[in-house]
Amino acid sequence: MAGRLSTLLDPSRIRLQVQSNKRTVALNEIARLLDGHSDVTNFQGFYNELLARERLDTTCLGNEIALPHARTEHVQKIVMAVGRSDSGVLFENSNQTVKLMFVLGTPKSNPTDYLQVVSALCKIFKDPSNRDALMNAATPEQFIQAIVTAEEKLLSPA
């Protein structure tokens, strides 16, 4: 991952009010934000692999956060879309309610970028003030700013 996590985010790919509380419908709603992305070569192929991965094992990280993802040949570079649900979405396979979903597509040929993104997200989510900022952001731009602020906290010496 060249650069920061925040560079993967675009306001048009952040939905702060996911409509469905059903997992697969909510995932479709969020993943659709990547349909037409210049680095997604085959959206349906990517989406099918995302669902297949989701059936294998839970992508819940705890703290009401999930990281649905697919390592796939249908993306040229790592892509991300974000969904937030105030009421929560039940992830039946782990019996957890999730309020923040970060949908990732990563090229099969580059597992290092994927691991760097997951690592950066986990470090950000560890801090309750970062999670609160993401849950309280009023606009996609504020959401991205919360990620930027969290990244800066991680990069500055303690």
TrEMBL record:
Residues 7-151 form the PTS EIIA type-2 domain. PROSITE patterns: PTS_EIIA_TYPE_2, PTS_EIIA_TYPE_2_HIS. Keywords: Sugar transport, Transport. It comes from the Bacteria. It holds the Pfam family PTS_EIIA_2. InterPro entries: PTrfase/Anion_transptr (IPR016152), PTS_EIIA_type-2_dom (IPR002178), PTS_SugarTrans_NitroReg (IPR051541). This is PTS sugar transporter subunit IIA. It comes from Rariglobus hedericola. The lineage of its organism: Bacteria, Pseudomonadati, Verrucomicrobiota, Opitutia, Opitutales.
